[in-house]
Amino acid sequence: MKKIKVAIIGYGNRGMIYGSFIQERMDQFQVVAVVEFIKDKLAKAKNDFNLNDNQLYQDADAFFKDKLKVDLLIVSSMDKYHYLQTVTALNQNMNVLLEKPIALTLNECNTIADLAKQKKKYVVVCHVLRYSSFYCKIKELIENGRVGEVVHINQAENVGYWHQAHSYVRGNWRKKEETGPMILAKCSHDLDILYWLINKPCVRLSSFGSLKHFKKENQPKGAASRCFDCIKKEDCPFNCYNFYLKDGREWARQLVGDDLSDENIKVFLKTSDYGKCVYECDNDVVDHQVVNMEFEGNVTASLSMEAFSRYCYREIHVYGTKGDITGDFEKRIITLNDYINGQEVIDLNEITDDFSGHGGGDKVMFFEFVDLLVNKRKAKNLTLIEDSIMSHVMAFASEKSRLNKGEVVEIEQKNKMA
Q1: How far apart are CA 119 and CA 129, in angstroms?
Q2: What integer pLDDT is reported at residue 93 of this predicted model?
Q3: CA–CA distances in Å: residue 174 to residues 168, 332, 351, 396
Q4: Nearest of 65, 59, 70, 16 to residue 41 by alpha carbon
Q5: What gap in Å lies between CA 136 and CA 61, rounded to an integer?
Q6: Mean pLDDT value across residues 138-146
Q7: Residue 95: beta bridge partners?
Q8: CB-side exposure of 409: number of CA atoms within 13 Å?
Q9: How far apart are CA 111 and CA 47, in angstroms?
Q10: In this structure, is the dihedral angle defined by the CA atoms of residues 306, 309, 312 and 315, taken in order, positive or negative?
Q11: 23-54: b or e for each residue (b if 16 or more CB lie within 10 Å)?
Q12: CATH assignment of 132-211+283-353+385-415?
C-alpha cells in the first residue's frame, strides 16, 4: 500500500497528539518533514519518526521553499500563522489538517475556503468535539426525534481558573492580536457544536463580556511581580508553583519538556512568563463572555464562557418540544427527559472506553480524514472548511457585538451557509 506522505508544522501539544496517531500506524504513513522552532521539540520529532537532519526545519518558509511532495500537511502552529501556511500549502497542492481557528479574519477564512475549492484539495478544520461520543450521542437523540423539535440550547464552556491563567493570561493565547478574540480561539468549538446540533444557519446574535479580573487594579496589596518573590502566594489561587508542582505537573510538560523534576520546573518559572503575577501580565483577552443567538426557524441558543470555575468542563442543555437533554462532557453522562416516558440516563463510560483527546474526538477526526484521502469516502461528521466557516462567522460577529456594547449583529445572507 502506498504510504501517505505527511508533514507537520508545529510539534507542540496538538502536533504531538497527531504525531502519536501516525506512530500507531507507521505502515500507513511516511513523515517527510517536521517544522518546529523549539529545538527540544524538534529533537523529539526526529526521534519519534526516525528523521534525518535535512527533514527538520525551524521555520516554515524554509520548508515551503523546498517544495516537498506532501499528501497531508498538519498545521498545528500558533493561530496567527494559520492563514499564510495554509494558503502556501494549498498552492503547493497539499491537503491540510488545520487546527482551529482557521484564520484571524473572516476574509482570510473565506480565502482559504475558496482556494481549497479552486485547487480541489481538502482542508479539514479540527472541530474535534463533533467526533466525540458525547456530542455524537446527543446529535443522534435529536435526529431520532427523542426531544421533538429543538427550541433552545444552552452550551457552557467552563474554562477553569487555572486553565485561564495558564493559556489566556500568562500563555500563548493571552493577546487577541496574536490569536484573535478569545471567543474565536477558545469557543469556535462550541459555536460549531451549536450550529451542528441545530443544523440551521445563525441569522443574528448579540454578546457581552470583558476582561474583569486579571488586571493590575485587582492585584492584592503587597503582591510581587513574580510568584517566586510574592509574600501573598500561599493565599493566591493563581500561585504558579502551587499549580505546576502539583495538579498541573502534566501541563508543565508543555513548557519544560519531559524533565518534570521540581528543580527543572522551578528554574523555568523563575524567568518565564508563566512565573509572572496574573495581575501584571500583558493579557487583553476576556475572562468571561456570553453570546445569545437566533437560528433560522426561531431556534435560539446561548453560550457562556467563564474563566471562573474550579474545573475545566463543558455542559449542555437541549430543550425540545417533546423532551430535553442535559449532559456533562467530563462526567460522560447524558440524561434524556422524555415528557411522556420519563427519564433515561446514558452513561457513556458503559458504551466506549476511548475518552482520549476531546472525548476521543481527536483520533476519530484524524482517521476519518485519512479515510477520505485514501478511499475518497467522506464520513458524515467530517468538518471540511466550507462547513466550519459558520462557527467563525458567529465568532467574529460575537466579538463585534461585544465591542459595541451588545448590539445585535445580523449575519449576512452570503455567510449563512457554506
Answers
A1: 28
A2: 97
A3: 4, 30, 38, 17
A4: 16
A5: 39
A6: 97
A7: 72
A8: 25
A9: 36
A10: negative
A11: eeeeeebebbbbbbeeeebbebbbebbebeee
A12: 3.30.360.10
Quick one: residue 356, left, alpha or beta (phi over 0 = left, psi -120 to 50 = alpha)?
Answer: beta
Residue with cell 455567510: 415
With 90 as the cut, is the pLDDT of residue 343 above it?
Answer: yes
Handedness of CA 74, 79, 83, 88 (dihedral sign): negative
Q: With bands split at pLDDT 50, 70 and 90, how would you rate the model's confidence at 354?
A: low
Using the structure block, give the residue that is written with the C-alpha cell 454578546: 207
Q: What's the whole-number mean pLDDT along residues 249-258?
A: 86
β partners of residue 347: 333
Contacts made by residues 402-410, CB under 8 angstroms, sequence distance 24+: 402/181, 402/183, 402/207, 402/208, 402/209, 402/286, 402/289, 405/208, 406/206, 406/207, 406/208, 407/206, 408/204, 408/205, 408/206, 409/204, 409/205, 409/206, 410/203, 410/204
Helices (H) and strands (E) counted in the chain, each on its own, are 16, 15
Grid cell locating 194: 451549536
Cβ partners under 8 Å of residue 243, min gap 6: 162, 165, 166, 251
Question: How many CB atoms are located within 10 Å of the residue 252 CB?
Answer: 21
Identify any residues that bridge with 288 across adjacent strands, giving them in sequence order: 210, 306
CA-CA distance, 389 to 367, in Å (whole number)? 22
Strand ranges (E), 165-312: 202-210, 288-295, 299-306
- Whether 207 shows a pLDDT value over 80: the answer reads yes
pLDDT at position 125 is 95
Q: Which amino acid is at 332?
A: R
CATH of segment(s) 4-128: 3.40.50.720
The grid cell for 52 is 534525518
The average pLDDT across 198-203 equals 95
Provide DSSP, 379-396.
-TT--BHHHHHHHHHHHH
Provide the whole-model pTM: 0.92
Q: CATH 3.30.360.10 residue ranges in the chain? A: 132-211+283-353+385-415
